[in-house]
Amino acid sequence: MMLNMAQAINLALKQEMEKNKKVVLLGEDIGVDGGVFRVTEGLLERFGPNRVIDTPLAESAIIGTSIGMAIYGLKPVAEIQFDGFLYPALDQLISHAARIRNRSRGRFTCPLVVRIPCAGGIHAPEHHSESPETHIVHTPGLKAVMPSTPYDAKGLLTAAMRDPDPVVFFEPKKLYRSPKQEVPEKDYDIPIGKAGVTKEGGDVTLVSWGTMVHVCAEAAEKLKGKNIDAEIIDVRSLSPLDTETILNSVQKTGRAVIVHEAPRTLGLGAEIAATISEADILSLKAPVKRVTGFDIPMPLAKHENLYLPDAGRVSRAAEEVMKF
Amino acid sequence: MRKGIVRFSVNYVQILDENGKCSESTELTNEQVKEIYELMVLSRIFDEKSVKLQREGRLGTYPPVRGQEAAQVASAYALDKKDWMIPAFRENASMIVRGLPMEMLLQYWGGDERGQKIPADQNNLTFAIPVGTQPLHAVGIAWASKIMGDKIASLVYFGDGATSEGDTSEAMNFAGVFSLPLVFACMNNQWAISVPRKKQTAAETIAQKAIAFGFDGIQVDGNDVFAVYKATKDALEKARSGKGPTLIELFTYRMGDHTTADDASRYRKKSEIDEWLKKDPIERLRKYMESNKLWTKDYEEKLLVKSGKKVEDAIKKYESVPMEDPGKIFEYVYAGMTEKLENQQKSLERQDESKS
Ligand SMILES: Cc1ncc(C[n+]2csc(CCOP(=O)(O)OP(=O)(O)O)c2C)c(N)n1
Ligand SMILES: [Mg+2]
Predict the structure, then answer these.
(1) For burial by CB atoms within 10 Å, which of A190, A207, A216, B345 has the most?
(2) Is the pLDDT confidence value at A6 over 80?
């Protein structure tokens, strides 16, 4: 089927809910309204109000009650309406969802999924364009994934819903309605913890995730014109991180540019750069470079393009590492 | 036009007064009364012993129960085995009632996670140290039980301090909206470390907070086992019959320090403690039992010996458990270990080898 990312996510939810009666969805405006991005459209009609729950407006409660449901034996898939409203729920995620297995030495587990529309580029108001993935990745006990295509979205969400641990599923808003892609109707999953190589190349490795994978693809086109052959890695699984795929690529190219939308300081790019240099400094022909958001609050619509890495910034960085 | 549109009142319940006199029937058999008394005595000995162990450096920081035995024991006693109990962190006595071995409590307060590996046949959640976070888990548990059609109820404990946390309000709100089978048991022990109840909320009672969320609140003499038992039992039955949540404010007092790391004399007067000493929950029940021929000196002596021995046995078990294998700290982060964790586990093993 030809689907955009929002439709692919909807299909994954629908199919898993049919298969697994324990899956329940909860969040703000996800039922009658079908979600503010229409991702859960039609699911209330199909599965009823016991499985598609419009909650009162309280993020900490959405996650906190999901934790209780997961402990009891349901498979809650909670939606946080926008990235910037994750913060009230971070306490529940960090203090409890991430720890209950460890705290109880395996007696209780917390297999929940948190879906979060994330990142910028859609000219939204303040708090609607954040990239909070570092907070999740930094928390032992949580997993985090972010697809960049409809195909990956369906497979990764299916895997997330079958995972025995809490998974935060980031959905780049800008990609919800980007070009449709062939998405199999049949059941498939994409293993959490595995990155994808979306373009092979021999000169420089571009490492990114979410919306930025497409920016890297655009940059790779530009670089081609300058005779630079870039390899693109779509990290997909931010935690656990597939260091093997990244290191294999850097071993081949000897150069890496890491691209993310989140602010630079302590962004996942810092971890990847450190991992590359710890594991394999001798294959590097140039220092690892980062192209990231700035260390400022995400600007409002008029200036968001200044903040967001674009193909120009990425290709310039790649040229710099080539020249080193 | 102006007219009153909402009126509310909050009931206070006491069945057993400070002199051990009962104002109504207790709904408990003599055997049950004795069982509750014995659990309270056991809890107190455990509690005293735990504080002592901490002073001797044999236990970590410990939050004493002293004074709250009726509130904890009688409420936990009202639960059915299949019901869920979601504790805060001070519910050592409730945990004992629910069957958690005392050596596991010691193990946990001694700094060993295995103490919170709740036995598989017990529906008790682990302690929650972040204040006021666990009512939401209880709502999720009660909600799941309702969705799955299980005929059980759940009960969550939280303190007077916890009522100020947003999560506690969110929990009551959700429970009200979805009419969940849950009892909110607020342990109003008058203090949140050094902050007195009056500085926690301007509301006259904690019980009345339920009104705003659309369900009943009741204040109960928390040092009266019979009132605590009856109020909890009624609320649990109401929950099971699909009539939604109840907030029970258990009006009691924390006789000890906040924890063994605290010195309560810095912020509260001895005269206040002396007043509450007269309301001691164990002493009160003892008086009742004595006048109803359920208690003799001989019975008491035997009970103290028996309970003391149980606690000593638990301490022995606790102190003879071998340390958990160091590598285990990596093994419960996820269902399976990630490559990164495996590497870190190996690096810890190498460190260990180089030390020896
Ligand atoms: C979120 C949070 N803030 C602060 C603390 C530190 N703390 C531990 S217990 C406590 C007071 C709790 O009072 P209350 O809820 O009345 O329970 P009690 O200790 O009286 O049983 C505080 C401030 C904490 N554990 N969690
Ligand atoms: Mg208190």
Answers:
(1) A216
(2) yes
Query: Which letter, b or e, does each residue of A32-49 get, where b requires 16 or more Cβ atoms within 10 Å of its Cβ?
Result: eebbbbebbbebbeebee
Domains identified in chain A, total number = 2
DSSP state of B163: G
**C-alpha distances in angstroms, A3 versus A172, A182, A211, B172, B356?**
16, 6, 17, 41, 60
Provide CB contacts within 8 A for A197, sequence distance 6+: A231, A232, A233, A234, A245, A249
- Mean pLDDT of chain A, nearest integer: 98
Same domain (yes/no): B266, B295: yes
Pairing of strands B191-192, B195-196: antiparallel
Beta strands in chain A (DSSP E): 2-3, 23-27, 52-54, 75-79, 113-118, 143-145, 167-172, 181-182, 196-199, 204-208, 230-234, 237-239, 256-263, 289-293
Ligand 1 atom with the smallest distance to the CA of B200 is 16
User: What one-letter code names the amino acid at A96?
Assistant: H
Q: Which residue of B has its CA nearest to A97?
A: B137
d(CA B46, CA B40): 10
Calculated CA dihedral for residues A243, A248, A249, A254, nearest 10 degrees: 110
- The angle that helices B225-240 and B281-291 make with each other, rounded to 10 degrees, is 100
The two three-digit tokens of residue A222, written as one number: 């530009």
For residue B165, the 8-state DSSP code is: S
The β-bridge partners of A233 are: A197, A207
- The verdict on A112 and A56 lying in the same domain is yes
B108 and B19 in a common domain: yes
Q: Is residue B4 part of a domain?
A: no
Which chain B residues are Cβ-neighbours of A66 within 8 angstroms?
A: 140
**Alpha carbon distance B178, B344 (integer Å):** 45
> How many A-B residue pairs are in contact by the CB < 8 A criterion?
136
Instruction: Give, to the nearest 10 degrees, the angle between helix A59-72 and helix B166-177.
Output: 70
**Are A202 and A57 members of one domain?**
no
Is the separation of the CB atoms in A181 and A150 below 8 Å? yes
User: Does residue A193 sit at the B interface (CB-CB below 8 Å)?
Assistant: yes
Contact yes or no for A258/A286 (Cβ under 8 A): no
Cβ distance B137 to A91 less than 8 Å, yes or no, reads no
B174 touching A (Cβ < 8 Å): yes
* CATH classification at residue A304: 3.40.50.920
Spell out which residues of chain B touch residue A95, defining contact as CB-CB under 8 Å.
130, 133
Whether B1 contacts chain A with CB within 8 A: no
Report DSSP state, residue B19: T
Q: Report pLDDT digits (tens) over B91-128.
A: 999 999 999 999 999 999 999 999 999 999 999 999 99
Name the residue range of residue A135's domain: 2-182
B7 catalytic? Reply is no
Give yes or no: residues A145 and A252 share one domain.
Answer: no
Are residues A47 and A170 both part of a single domain?
Answer: yes
Answer yes or no: do A214 and A298 share one domain: yes
Q: How confident is the model at residue B356, as a pLDDT?
A: 54
Is residue B352 over pLDDT 80? no
What pLDDT was estimated at residue B355? Answer: 60
**Same domain for A113 and A18:** yes
Give the domain range for residue B95.
11-324
Domain check: are B334 and B187 in the same one? no
Q: What is the domain count for chain B? A: 2
B129 CB within 6 A, ligand 1: yes
Domain harbouring A98, CATH code:
3.40.50.970
Q: Measured between alpha carbons, how far is A52 from A31 in angstroms, rounded to an integer?
A: 6
Place of tokens 């007064």: B17
ipTM of the complex: 0.92
pLDDT number for residue B351 = 80
Asked if residue A156 and residue A99 are part of one domain, the reply reads: yes
Predicted TM-score (pTM) of the model is 0.95
